[in-house]
Amino acid sequence: xxxxMLALMAALLVVAGLLAMACGDxxxxxxxxxxxxxxxxxxxxxxxxxxxxxxxxxxxxxxxxLWEGEVDNWVCDVAHNPxxxxxxxxxxxxxxxxxxxxxxxxxxxxxxxxxNVK
Length: 118
Prior knowledge:
Layout: H1 2-22, H2 39-55, E1 65-68, E2 74-78, H3 85-88, E3 103-107, E4 114-117
Parallel strand pairs: 2-3
Antiparallel strand pairs: 1-2, 3-4
């Protein structure tokens, strides 16, 4: 009886641990504020621009800026998740982010999925 209770408790702890890991902050698009003005439009436009660049044969591995201001107050940047050194190089970032644009969308160079929207 005690062995069964210990096994049940161990199983419950494993399940609780898995649930806690699943609910952790992984900085993906879904964790970002959905109330930012133009957010949904910016995410869609950025993903579309990334897909078009891929179709056109553009190399996205260096994390280029795809557009600035196409959607009011937003920039669209390609980056890696997790970030790499190339993503932190100012030459590969949108130069007008923060002045005048306040928000950004980062998309993955391989999938064009948005993973960071602020």
